[in-house]
Design a protein that fits this description.
TIM Barrel, single chain, alpha/beta, globular, two-stranded antiparallel ribbon, binds NADPH dihydro-nicotinamide-adenine-dinucleotide phosphate, eight-stranded parallel β-sheet
């Protein structure tokens, strides 16, 4: 199978991470989420992105366990990410937060654990905790989220292990050219959150035009644009038909001119908070 849900990129430590996964932000605990995770795995998704602050790790974990059994998969065939929340940033606090996430998910390890936001004065202690978890073999890979170049540079001054991933807001209105260049030079894999700009780009005239040229949807064009930039992407849907649509991006390619015209839409505009001005 050649789908991007199944194709992987090697992180700096060699761990294989799927290019395309499922996000579950703003989905509450409950049967809808359990069923959505199972539908995603049935459709070929192998990567699921949650966070302690989404308060849905129990249902994500239940969905994962049921999906593994239903599809005859082993745990190592799925890639599970969670994130430590701002109030738990500290060496001991972060170690405890990791155990709490594992316990809610009902798993004995994560594939990727991220610092959710770069809270000043706190993220270095949290990073030491992630390094401990990594060196002890408790987690396959560690990284950060919402880190600007300045935060990455600061973190790496004292880090023994470099972050393997930076998960940031990324879509055509915020295409992060400086961060992309920096991450590439440092061997840090970028991962896009809100790749569909939470739905706000789906009527965009240029994107609609490109989509109809390829006989694809705007969501598929956005996902393809991430992948052609070498950025991992995790669009969120709880609907099986949209999960299927978002995964069906192997049968077309954006031309260099189309990529450039989408890149030119950048306005440094965010749907989420700016990590430099976030009220932590
Ligand atoms: P997305 O950009 O993925 O957009 C999700 C929205 O688009 C939902 O309303 C969904 O609705 C809709 N949608 C999905 N697919 C389609 C489609 N094919 N056609 C039309 N509409 C569609 O937003 P998110 O903010 O959820 O970002 C994705 C993931 O990134 C999150 O779920 C989370 O895992 C992660 N994230 C991380 C953050 C961080 O700080 N690290 C911050 C924010 C997100 P529906 O479900 O009804 O289909």
């Amino acid at each position: 199978m050649n789908a991007f849900t199944n194709r992987t990129v090697a992180l700096a430590n060699g761990v294989a991470m799927p290019w395309l996964g499922m996000g579950v932000f703003k989905v509450e605990e409950g049967q809808e989420l359990v069923e959505a995770v199972k539908a995603a795995v049935r459709l070929g998704y192998r990567s699921i992105d949650t966070a302690a602050v989404y308060a849905n790790e129990s249902s994500v974990g239940q969905g994962i366990r049921e999906a593994l059994e239903e599809n005859g998969l082993s745990r190592d065939q799925l890639f599970v990410t969670s994130k430590v929340w701002n109030s738990d940033l500290g060496y001991e606090e972060t170690l405890a937060a990791y155990e709490a996430s594992l316990s809610k998910l009902g798993l004995d390890y994560l594939d990727l654990y991220l610092i959710h936001w770069p809270v000043a004065g706190k993220y270095k202690d949290a990073w030491r905790a992630l390094e401990t978890l990594y060196k002890d073999g408790r987690v396959k890979a560690i990284g950060v989220s919402n880190f600007h170049v300045s935060h990455l540079e600061d973190l790496m001054k004292d880090a023994a292990v470099r972050p393997m991933v930076d998960q940031v807001e990324f879509h055509p209105l915020l295409s992060q050219p400086e961060l992309r260049r920096f991450a590439k030079a440092q061997g840090i894999q970028l991962e896009a959150w809100s790749p569909l700009m939470q739905g706000q780009l789906l009527d965009h005239p240029l994107l609609s035009d490109i989509a109809s040229r390829h006989g694809k949807s705007v969501a598929q064009v956005l996902i393809r644009w991430d992948l052609q930039h070498g950025v991992i992407t995790i669009p969120k849907s709880t609907k099986a038909e949209r999960l299927a649509e978002n995964a069906a991006v192997d049968d077309f390619e954006l031309t260099p001119t189309e990529m450039e015209s989408i890149d030119a839409l950048n306005e440094n505009r965010r749907v989420g908070p700016d990590p430099d001005n976030f009220d932590f």
